[in-house]
Structures are given as C-alpha cells and as structure tokens.
Design a protein that fits this description.
With 281 residues, the chain is mainly alpha-helical. The chain is built from 13 helices and no strands.
Length: 281
C-alpha cells in the first residue's frame, strides 16, 4: 500500500531539516494547538460577521501570520534557537514581534473585535493598554526583561517558562503595534506624524539592548556558551550576530514603517490642499 503523502506545509518544512545537524522537522504540539485555536476562533467570528466576512487580503494576511508563527516555533529554526545558536533565537523573537503580530492585526477586521468592547471594563482596559505611552512601555519592558540574563536563562532551562516568554512577546507586540495599525475607531490610530515619532521611540530601547549584546565582551547566556558549536560560530560571535540582527534589520523595520507613514502623511496633505484649492471662493 502506498503511504499517504505529507500535508504540503509539512512536506515543504521537511526539506529544511538539513539546516540542523542530525535532526528531522520537529513539530511541537503546544504550538500547533495554539495556532489551530486562533484559526478556529477566526473562522467562527468570520461566519458571524457581515456578508462576505473578511476580505481576501485580510484572510491572506491572517493565514500568513499563522504560517510564519508555525515555522518560527517548529522545525529547524526552533531547534537551532533552543539547542545551538542565540542568533537563531533572535530571528525567532523578531519574527514573532515584527512580522507575525502585524500580519495578524492586518488580517483581523475591526468588527471581529468590537463585540468584546461592549463590556465597559474591557473597553477601559483596552484603551489603557493601547495608549501610546502604555503600549511603548509594555513592549519595551517585556523585550528588555526577557533578555536580561536571569530571566532569559530561566526560559532556556524551563520549557514552560520559554512558552510564557513567547506568549509575552506576542501579546506585548500586539499592544505595541496597535497605535499604528488599529482598525477600530474606539481604539484609534495615532495621526501620521505621531505614528512616525512613536515607532522611532519604540526602536530606540531595542537599539540600546542590541548594542549591549553586540559589544559585550563575555557571553551572557550559559545555554549558548556550552551549546554544541556549528558552522564555526563561537559563543561570543553568536551573541554579537544576535545583537546586530536586533540592531540593524530590527531597527530598519521601524524606520521603514516611519518612512511609509511620512509619505502617506505627505500625500494626505497634498490631497487636502488640492481639495481646498478646488472649492469655489
């Protein structure tokens, strides 16, 4: 009898396993359960929404977010980050905070979330945590705290703590992106100029943390100092590469968002000027 073929997602993923020495593509049930729960919740809300549900673009963004989450938390990247390289762990964290959550926000129309806001305490709490200063603070404290050696090393030693770490990153980054990407008038976005200042402000503490990691003259995380060496990367180089990854590509994402908002702001101002100029005197 011919064996059934693997699902396309796992078949594509399996081709990547040679990246990690001696490993097959590992799938972790806790991540699959979480991803399937999000997908089921989305499908349920889509059926209860207006005719047609989310747009094709919104559905594609949400599926893309779940797909990136799956590949971030399973397979070669997970194995590399857990057992070999700090820089792989940094890739994982940046994907979760700077790719996955923006895609999920873009993919979730405001009407899906509005029913929860009918409860006054939920609306008050949502407004409190998504206010710019609060959102900035929550994300910054979360990012820095989990990269301090005591907490980071605890997460590496105790797997349930590691799961909590990733959940904290997902929640904190969702809150952080809300003032820039909100689809709810009840929890509005900042104006274009304010968004530019906000994302640049968010990038600054991450840059400071990245500089500390890049220029530290000792390894801060024992799990990687004693990990098997692959690809000729020393523990200190590994830490430096991770810091550079947070510093440059991570920072560029924020400055890219600021640039997009600048051009949108300029276009909106130009269109407003044209409308005013065309009005009869």
């Amino acid at each position: 009898m011919t064996a059934p073929s693997a699902p396309p997602l796992l078949a594509a993923a399996a081709a990547l396993h040679p990246l990690v020495p001696g490993s097959a593509f590992a799938v972790h049930p806790s991540t699959v359960i979480g991803i399937l729960a999000l997908a089921a919740l989305y499908a349920w809300r889509a059926r209860l929404g207006p005719a047609g549900g989310p747009t094709t673009g919104q559905r594609a963004a949400f599926v893309a977010g779940l797909t990136v989450m799956f590949f971030s938390l399973n397979g070669p990247l997970h194995d590399l980050s857990d057992s070999y390289l700090f820089v792989a762990h940094m890739v994982q964290h940046l994907l979760l905070t700077l790719v996955v959550t923006p895609l999920l926000i873009v993919g979730t129309p405001g009407w899906m979330l509005r029913p929860a806001l009918q409860y006054p305490w939920v609306l008050r709490a949502a407004r409190a945590v998504t206010a710019p200063v609060a959102a900035f603070s929550i994300f910054t404290v979360t990012m820095i705290a989990w990269h301090l050696p005591p907490l980071y090393n605890l997460a590496m030693d105790v797997h349930p703590v590691h799961i909590v770490e990733h959940l904290c990153f997902l929640v904190a980054s969702t809150i952080m992106w809300w003032p820039v990407m909100s689809s709810l008038p009840e929890l509005p976005r900042l104006g274009y100029g304010q968004q530019m200042l906000y994302v640049i402000a968010v990038a600054l503490p991450m840059s400071v943390l990245a500089i500390v990691l890049t220029y530290a003259d000792t390894t801060l995380y024992p799990a990687y100092a004693s990990a098997p060496r692959i690809w000729g990367i020393t523990p200190l180089q590994d830490q430096q590469y991770g810091g550079l990854l947070m510093w440059l590509p991570g920072g560029l994402i924020f400055f890219g968002v600021a640039s997009v908002r600048f051009f949108q702001w300029a276009r909106a101002e130009a269109e407003s000027t044209e409308v005013e100029g065309s009005e009869p005197k």
